[in-house]
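Our platform keeps sequence and structure together, in a single record for each protein. Nothing more is needed to write down the fold, since each code stands for a local backbone conformation. An entry from our holdings is shown next, in its original layout:
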Amino acid sequence: MPSHLPDPSFSGPLTVSVSVEIDAPIEKVWEVLLDFTNYAECQVVTDEHKHPLADQTPVPGVHLLLRVHIPPTMDDSVSTTSAFEMITHVDPAAHRIAWKNVNAPRLLRAERWQVLSTNEAGGTRYETSEAFGGIGAYIVKWFIGEKLQKSFEAMAEGLKAYAERKYGGT
């Protein structure tokens, strides 16, 4: 099945990507993916000053403060890594969302896409990819590139498990 991810807007030394098949309807997986209120411990929609917004709906132009474990773990005693992003695209008809890094963009460019499509079985294919550019991308690649890949895989598997448990059986 061909990818539905758009080409990155730039090239760089690192791209992390993963896809997974989910046995749940595309609209339900989209709801889960965009239900940012249930991700409150790890991602918060904010203004440009990192103040949380009352409305946690992801829309282009708002910011996203991410707190993630790299490598992935559910152990809250392990410190998190933060990223400050700006949502650039939300397309419900095409089931696509994207954001870009706004922390030190001269040193590190990053653009992440997440896309859903209907697979041949009538379920959902989840694809995500993040391209990294700039001098900081080499540091990311050398020091956490493999761990970042594992984090993407864990996120995809988590989305799959949750959506199938809640909405499985397309």
